[in-house]
Amino acid sequence: MVFAQPLPVALSPSRLSDFQSCPRRYQHASVDRIPQPASYASTKGRYVHAILELLFALDAAQRTRERASALRDEAEATVLTDEVRADLELDATMLERLRAESEEILDVYFVMEDPRHVHPEGVELRLNVEVAGTPLLGILDRLDRDDEGNLVIVDYKTGSVPDRRYDSLTFANTELYAALCESHFGERPAAIRLLYVAKGTTMERRVSDVVVRARVQSAQQAWSRITTYYDDGDFPATPSARACRFCAYQERCRAAGVPVVIR
Ligand code: SF4
């Protein structure tokens, strides 16, 4: 098979995660570019992210709880596009629920930190660099500098708090961000801080040389396989409960005879 679309020019941590869970999923999302319908959870995540991004665009003194609520209309205009509204079949009841739950998350966030006293180096920072021959792309929620002068990657999470036994999986994406930062700024962040803003929990991990090198090597190997599969015209499906359960391409796979696993 010859693909109609070109290969993406760079690999992002989330697409790397798609590829590692199932190469066919990467193909559908990144090569065939078949849109994945918006879900309520993903929309709520984007909505809260949009408010926090708008909040940090203000002068520090203006980043109050009241001001965050006042950014609602601007966030909705960005996030609730016609496509998203159609995917969600958004009605007045769902919209009220989305607003109320986002307000609850903002209440929790303002207990976790006071954004008036946070002075980021960057917000929604788009980094596009080549690392060890692999083109990488990442968008960081926030890059802070701590009291000791070290860079800290900050990532907002609106889902539940993961089991600490799976830290290496939880931090995998952001550890690749550390490699992007090092390549772009010539300075490796010292730590990664995940803010679970729906739960009021912070998870933090130091960034080590060994781990960053391992993440880069893993991305490098994946990119090499991606280009090979693309040239071969076939990205194999590797169904598993973890990969398939929330995959948007289940019907497409079943129609192609792939034994999708959802238990
Ligand atoms: S449904 Fe399963 S096998 Fe098919 S693309 Fe998604 S993860 Fe892969």
Describe the sheet with the most strands: 5 strands, mixed
Examine the coordinates and then state which fold CATH places here, giving the name of the CATH topology of the domain at 122-217. Answer: Lambda Exonuclease, Chain A
Number of helices: 12
Q: Pairing-aware structural class of the strands and helices?
A: alpha+beta
What gap, in angstroms, lies between the N and C termini? Answer: 31 Å
CATH class of the domain at 122-217: Alpha Beta
Order of helices and strands: HHHHHHHEEEHHEEHHH
Tally the beta strands.
5
User: What is the gyration radius calculated from CA atoms?
Assistant: 19 Å
Query: Which shape, going by the Cα principal axes?
Result: globular
Small-molecule binders here are: iron/sulfur cluster
What layout of secondary structure does this protein have?
Blueprint: H1 13-21, H2 23-31, H3 40-56, H4 65-70, H5 72-79, H6 82-88, H7 92-112, E1 122-131, E2 134-145, E3 151-157, H8 167-170, H9 172-185, E4 191-196, E5 201-206, H10 209-232, H11 241-244, H12 250-255
Parallel strand pairs: 3-4
Antiparallel strand pairs: 1-2, 2-3, 4-5
Helix pairs in contact: 1-2, 1-9, 1-10, 3-5, 3-7, 9-10
This protein binds iron/sulfur cluster.
Iron/sulfur cluster is lined by residues 22, 24-25, 28, 237, 239, 243-244, 247, 249-250, 253, 258, 260.
Question: Summarize this, please?
Answer:
With 263 residues, the chain is α+β, with helices and mostly antiparallel strands. It has helices spanning 13-21, 23-31, 40-56, 65-70, 72-79, 82-88, 92-112, 167-170, 172-185, 209-232, 241-244, 250-255, and strands spanning 122-131, 134-145, 151-157, 191-196, 201-206. Among the domains are: 40-116; 122-217, Lambda Exonuclease, Chain A, CATH 3.90.320.10.
